[in-house]
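> call design_seq(struct)
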């Protein structure tokens, strides 16, 4: 038996064709692991087509909290040839397969039908474990009284893959069986038991042939704890329900739709209406009017949909609506871009979208837990300051699947802001946009005695009547824009930024959004005593915590700023707000989120005197501009195995057949 690795975590991956249910297998495995007491972080990568293209789901498993994935894979379950050797039949390969991610000493569970591709793989430090899934499925069906029906029940391969992984790792099969049953629900007992039976056959086969042979093992597990597995879209939705959101509007768009679908599935149990509109323009306008109607309102979208909403932002700001809360699930752009891939490309747009000066609060959630609390807070900000609030999340958070403790809601309080009181504030007239010391005017709810609703998107006087008076314009602009100064003074620093470490280390990592998880994990493992690195996470982009952030970056030895976009949007915002230029800017724009390994590589590169601009991809620094080494390697591999396309199909300049 090989000596086991002392790694702090174990990395498992399943790859296969989209639509085949690899996400089901991975999430059943994650549930079983979580119930056994493990912390799990799941990350899925999938194409934007509905079915057929390659997808991969990885789980990182540990006995301590996790917030990111790593590049190395210890056990890989391959359900298509693309998992093994990549898209080698395509003119411009989409990816080189997952072989380059395999840890030395790792193993691959593969279906017998993909044996022919093993000759293509040039790795003698990886174990290849063949699983006869078709044969095992037939045995299970015979036992279930359905012989000769393997083709009809091939979808059960998902459960068999789970069983094979459980057997190879020596994990408790009964925990996996319960996860399988739960995934089918109470009404699918017969189907669930057939899947359990198939998984058991695969588990027994893998346990008999491969258990104990892997160079890596699951880490020791602590006692089971009261935790949950939750996705980012679910956390955002729960934050809205906790805040008392009364209406959610949306137009379907990836990856935001999952949140609205989750709310639709649960709206009968809560006082919320989920409204699918004809487009994103209607979605934000309906949300603005609902806010004026007295209910807490929200809309969710992604970059292309958000691009249609700036007029609605202006509508909300000019009429001083208490909202809406707009959650933007960032994805690869521009235009349709990469519909199912990660990017942090909408920061600059979120800060400036719309014509004229539009007061808005912009929050950037760093992880799934923050996305719950930030969403809750957003409704309080919207009511208290009567302006739109934008919550920036991204694809990595939306589809991330993480073990977390139950959210502590004991201190959450709903703040509806300044409301009109006919007895206390009434003098026979109601001025919706009255000038007040704070700049926030008490608002009435439709139907309230003594109240009224009268406003316009033109400039208006305190009553809400149109006017182009110079003095009124000056006062109204100061009133609306002054809300940001009010918010900056009232919102606590912990909601604006977070500092991990002393802040006086030789290097300060600066970042925003979901990059937080990879940095926190990287610093915990690479610098456990906190002597070399600190981390500053910016949470509130507007109003920006200028004085606090400037003080922290100026006292750091060297600042390394991380951005999940090409144009260094956080670094530019920092320079715009404070005048400070980070010594190094690390950017990633390949459509995949930062891994822990990439954070470590970038920090080491910066410390070693690397360039001011560092580009990261595939777990390593690729230089100030991308050098397509992987593309070249794949072209050579295709040539070697005679899989080149016809000569009339051109390759990029410089590539010769």
């Amino acid at each position: 038996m090989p000596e086991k690795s002392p790694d702090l975590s174990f990395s498992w991956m399943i790859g296969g064709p989209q639509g085949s249910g690899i996400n089901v297998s991975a999430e059943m495995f994650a549930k079983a692991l979580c119930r056994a007491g493990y912390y799990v972080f799941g990350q899925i990568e999938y194409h934007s087509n509905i079915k057929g293209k390659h997808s991969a789901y990885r789980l990182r498993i540990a006995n301590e909290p996790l917030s990111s994935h790593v590049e190395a894979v210890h056990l890989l379950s391959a359900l298509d040839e693309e998992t093994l050797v990549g898209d080698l039949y395509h003119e411009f390969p989409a990816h080189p397969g997952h072989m380059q991610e395999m840890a030395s000493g790792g193993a691959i569970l593969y279906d017998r039908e993909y044996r022919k591709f093993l000759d293509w793989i040039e790795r003698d430090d990886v174990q290849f474990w063949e699983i006869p899934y078709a044969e095992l499925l037939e045995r299970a069906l015979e036992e279930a009284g359905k012989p000769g029906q393997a083709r009809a029940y091939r979808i059960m391969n998902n459960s068999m893959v789970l069983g094979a992984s459980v057997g190879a790792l020596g994990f408790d099969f009964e925990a996996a069986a319960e996860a399988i049953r739960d995934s089918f629900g109470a009404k699918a007992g017969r189907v669930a038991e057939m899947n359990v039976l198939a998984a058991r056959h695969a588990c027994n086969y893998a346990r008999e042939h491969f258990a104990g042979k892997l160079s890596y093992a699951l880490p020791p597990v602590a006692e089971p704890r009261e935790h949950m597995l939750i996705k980012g879209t679910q956390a955002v939705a729960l934050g809205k329900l906790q805040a008392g959101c009364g209406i959610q509007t949306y137009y379907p768009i990836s990856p935001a739709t999952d949140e609205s679908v989750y709310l639709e599935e649960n709206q009968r149990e809560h006082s919320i209406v989920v409204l699918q509109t004809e487009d994103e323009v209607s979605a934000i306008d309906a949300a603005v009017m609902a806010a004026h109607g007295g209910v807490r309102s929200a809309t969710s979208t992604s970059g292309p949909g958000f691009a249609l909403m700036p007029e609605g932002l202006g509508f909300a700001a000019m009429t001083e609506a208490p909202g809406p809360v707009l959650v933007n699930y960032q994805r690869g752009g521009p235009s349709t871009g990469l519909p199912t891939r990660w990017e942090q490309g909408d920061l600059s747009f979120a800060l400036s979208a719309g014509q004229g000066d539009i007061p808005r609060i912009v929050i950037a959630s760093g992880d799934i837990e923050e996305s719950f609390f930030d969403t809750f807070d957003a409704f309080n900000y919207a009511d208290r300051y009567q302006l739109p609030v934008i919550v920036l999340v991204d694809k990595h958070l939306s589809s991330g699947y993480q073990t977390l403790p139950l959210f502590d809601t004991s201190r959450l309080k709903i703040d509806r802001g300044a409301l009109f009181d006919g007895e206390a504030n009434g003098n026979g007239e109601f001025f919706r946009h009255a000038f007040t010391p704070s700049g926030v005017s008490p608002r009435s709810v439709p139907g309230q005695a003594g109240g009224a609703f009268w406003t316009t998107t033109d400039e208006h006087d305190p009553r809400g009547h149109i006017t182009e008076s110079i003095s009124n314009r000056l006062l109204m602009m100061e009133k609306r824009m002054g809300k940001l100064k009010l918010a900056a003074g009232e919102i606590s620093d912990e909601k604006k930024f977070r500092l991990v470490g002393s802040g006086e280390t030789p290097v300060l990592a600066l970042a925003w959004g979901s990059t937080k998880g990879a940095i926190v994990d990287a610093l915990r493992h690479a610098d456990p005593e906190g002597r070399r690195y600190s981390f500053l996470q910016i949470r509130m982009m507007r109003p920006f915590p200028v004085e606090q952030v400037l003080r922290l970056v100026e006292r750091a030895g060297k600042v390394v700023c991380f951005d999940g976009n090409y144009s260094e949007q956080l670094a530019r915002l920092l320079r715009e707000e404070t005048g400070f230029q980070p010594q190094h800017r690390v950017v990633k724009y390949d459509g995949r989120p930062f891994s822990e390994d990439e954070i470590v590589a970038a920090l080491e590169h910066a410390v070693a005197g690397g360039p001011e601009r560092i580009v990261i991809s595939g777990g390593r620094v690729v230089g100030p501009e991308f050098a397509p080494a992987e593309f070249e390697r794949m072209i050579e591999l295709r040539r070697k195995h005679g899989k080149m396309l016809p000569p009339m199909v051109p390759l990029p300049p410089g590539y010769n057949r």
